[in-house]
Amino acid sequence: xxxxxxxxxxxxxxxxxxxxxxxxxxxxxxxxxxxxxxxxxxxxxxxxxxxxxxxxxxxxxxxxxxxxxxxxxxxxxxxxxxxxxxxxxxxxxxxxxxxxxxxxxxxxxxxxxxxxxxxxxxxxxxxxxxxxxxxxxxxxxxxxxxxxxxxxxxxxxxxxxxxxxxxxxxxxxxxxxxxxxxxxxxxxxxxxxxxxxxxxxxxxxxxxxxxxxxxxxxxxxxxxxxxxxxxxxxxxxxxxxxxxxxxxxx
Length: 250
Fold this sequence. Notes:
Elements: E1 2-6, H1 9-31, E2 34-38, H2 45-53, E3 62-66, E4 68-70, H3 81-93, E5 97-99, H4 107-119, E6 125-128, E7 151-155, H5 158-166, E8 179-183, H6 185-189, E9 193-198, H7 204-212, E10 230-235, E11 248-249
Parallel strand pairs: 1-10, 2-3, 2-6, 3-5, 6-9, 9-10
Antiparallel strand pairs: 1-11, 4-8, 7-8
C-alpha cells in the first residue's frame, strides 16, 4: 500500500485526480472500457473537481458504480448521494453508463439489481474514503469482512450519523437516516486498483487506527492494507497522528 501525504486538501484532490486520470487512461487504452466505483462526501469535493476538469478521458467508455446511499432519502435532498454524483460527476463528464443506488426504491431490489451487474466483472478502479469511525463505504465497525454479497443493507452507527450531520448535510441527528445501502468490504476489495482520498484533521484518529493499528472489523478501512494495489492520499492534518508522515509504502 502506498501512502502519499500532501500539504492540504486541495493538493490531495489534485494529486489523487492526476493518479486517477493516468490509471483510467491506461485501462481505456488496454481494454477500451473502464469500470469505476465512486465515493461521495465532503472529503471527495476537491478530488472530483480536479478529476472532472481533467482532459484526456473518454468518459463515454467509462461505467460508474455507486459505493453507498441512504435508504428512504428523497432524491432531491441535499444529502442524497445520487444527487451528489449527478451534480459533481455524471453531469460534468457526460457519463452515460452509471448504476446509482436509488434511495426511493425498494432497497433489496436495488442492491440485487446493481449487485448482479457489478458482480459480472470487477471494477477497474475504486475511489473511496475513510470515515471518522474508520468505515469503508457505509460498513461501520464492526464491519462484515466475510460476506460475499456485493451490496448490503446496513444500520448506521451513531458516530457515522454524527459525521453526516457535522459535515452539514443534515440539520439534526433526527434527520439523518438510520439505514443505508452499502457496497460490501469484499466487493470493494475486488477492484483492481483502489485510490483512497482522506483529507482533514477530523479523520486523523481513524487514519492512524486503520493504517497503523490492527487489521480488524473494528477499523473497517484497515482491510485496505491487504489489497495489492491501494494508494492512500492524506493531507498533513489527516496524517498528523501517524508515526511516519513522509510518502511511504506500507
